[in-house]
């Protein structure tokens, strides 16, 4: 039995370099794949992703609880995370 992959795309709400994550979500959904997208906060970008058909989870990728929730049920991941002063872990 073949299982349909459930994709997780991180940082999908960001408008960073070319909006790569958002474009990945758009492409996956256009090809009939299941898509879950993470965004940093609930705003109009999150709503736009939902309107496309993505499941959207708001959270912070440096918080292990948010990462665990996003990964739950995902079988494939496109990980992208922009650089921001709040993400300076060193």
Detailed description of the structure:
There is one protein chain. This protein has 90 residues and is an alpha/beta fold. Helix content is 31%, strand content 19%. It has a 4-stranded parallel β-sheet with strand order 3-2-1-4, sandwiched between helices. The model has no long low-confidence stretch (mean pLDDT 85).
Topology:
Layout: E1 6-9, H1 20-30, E2 34-39, H2 44-52, E3 55-58, H3 64-71, E4 76-78
Parallel strand pairs: 1-2, 1-4, 2-3
Quick overview of this protein structure:
With 90 residues, the chain is α/β, with parallel strands linked by helices. The protein has helices spanning 20-30, 44-52, 64-71; strands at residues 6-9, 34-39, 55-58, 76-78.
Give start-end ranges of low-pLDDT stretches.
none
In the CATH scheme, the class would be: Alpha Beta
Write the CATH homologous superfamily.
NAD(P)-binding Rossmann-like Domain
What global shape is seen? Answer: globular
Counted by DSSP, the helix tally is: 3
Q: Looking across the biggest beta sheet, what order are the strands in? A: 3-2-1-4
Range of helix content = 25-40%
Compute the separation of the termini in Å.
Answer: 45 Å
Radius of gyration: 13 Å
Q: Which class do the helix and strand fractions yield?
A: alpha/beta
Domains (count): 1
Report the CATH architecture. 3-Layer(aba) Sandwich
Helix/strand order, N-terminal first: EHEHEHE
The biggest sheet, with number of strands, parallel, antiparallel or mixed sense and barrel status, is: 4 strands, parallel
In total, the number of strands is 4
Query: Percent of residues in beta strands?
Result: 15-25%
Q: If you average the pLDDT, what whole number results?
A: 85
**What is the CATH third-level topology name?**
Rossmann fold
